[in-house]
Amino acid sequence: MSALFSAHLPAIQVVVPLISAPLCVLFRRTGATWLIALIVSWTSFGISILLLEQVIANGPISYLLGSWAAPWGIEYKVDMLSAFVMLIITSIGSISMIFAPNSVNSEIPDDRIYLFYTMYLLTFSGLLGITITGDAFNLFVFLEISSLSSYVLISLGAERNALTAAFRYLILGTVGATFYIIGVGLMYQMTGTLNMVDLAQRLPAVAETRTILVALGFVTVGIGLKLGLFPVHVWLPNAYAYAPSVVTAFLAATATKVAVYTLLRIYFTVFGTKIFTALPIGEFLLLLSLIAILSMSAVAIFQKNAKRLLAYSSVAQVGYMVIGISMVTATGLTATILHLFNHAMIKGALFLVLAAVFFRIKSVKIEHMAGLGKVMPYSMAAFVLAGFSLVGVPLTVGFVSKWYLILGALEKGWWPVAGLILISSLLAVIYFWKIVEVVYFKPRPQDAPLIHEAPLAMLIPMWVLVGANFYFGLDTDITVGSAKAAATLLIRGAP
Fold this sequence. Notes:
Blueprint: H1 2-7, H2 9-27, H3 30-58, E1 61-64, E2 75-78, H4 80-107, H5 113-132, H6 136-155, H7 161-191, H8 196-202, H9 210-227, H10 236-242, H11 245-271, H12 274-278, H13 281-301, H14 306-327, H15 330-361, H16 372-375, H17 377-391, H18 397-411, H19 415-441, H20 456-474, H21 477-492
Antiparallel strand pairs: 1-2
């Protein structure tokens, strides 16, 4: 029984949250729907750990749906990279569900709370499906499941602007998905297969044809829209700013990371490293990323809404990840994969703190946060410590990511790039300090209502993530080891 269960873990990982979503519609009661989402999230987290252990012990896992042999059937593939990203998604989801009840109940009308948990589970399932599938079209299906449900999640925000933000995301997300599927269709036209491993074997024979080059362009633009790559990031700031607080925390920590994973998978598993020598893709990505880390960090400085500030920061952080991809080296990819995990811990913690702030004062405008350091000391301390990690202070995960990124730049002889990375970190100090100054050095207005610290059910999750920022900043064996192993396989072109 145990062996049978273990053999079907890849399918169970996707199916359980997918079939649990309709249960939330059936039950509808707030407590029951939250309990379903909580149990499913933690079950998926446990499965992710088991899958990672299996991959470390026995190598990549191949699971054939319905026992149909690939490439005719759909194959689920779990290697070091996908197992690592699955661990990110499920850990953030599990922690977010512990945090969720207080925040969701205060921001979403009672008659829509069941809809939140339903859409959360669909988004959760879609993100897991993207990381686990070995089929390019099946990836599109899961991409749409996660996207469509996330549009609904964003629209549940308390402000009317949430609907506008969700609609803009829907339009641009649809454009991105269309670009991606056109690219996949062109690849299928030239190779006759959708299985990623099979594509990798057949593409070299037609790699220099105009059709494949156009397909690569379509796929790059489509995924770029999904991950918020500059300059096609315009949907992201409003989506993060006006979505319910827990939604912002969950999406900021997972959705863009899965999109970066997709880019890694398409570039290195399907096309291989030769495309970077055949086309100036690396130079193109590097240029966009350098503009992003500098311009978006500068834009963040002038924001008056803390969630928008962190949203622009996220666009800059995506730039760091794409810089690592543009290096096309093991060290560069190690930095990218590391930052997938590390940035999830950082932004997850920061946005949960802002969720607690909104829970108490019904605002995340920076001017309204004056004096919160005294009345919400534990929440604000968590914000400061997570902010240290965002800046890249030593002993934090943010430092580890930037260390490997700068090492990769120096290995390539890109001294100016290393310098620009350091400059962008200084810009991060400025916009981070902007909030710290208001929170700790400006008094609460005399007419401000009396507030208290966030509930324990909110403090524990945010401090778990803060603790992870320092624990994995000191003990890097698991994260760096997994990232190096995944990066090595990608560079070698291993399926």
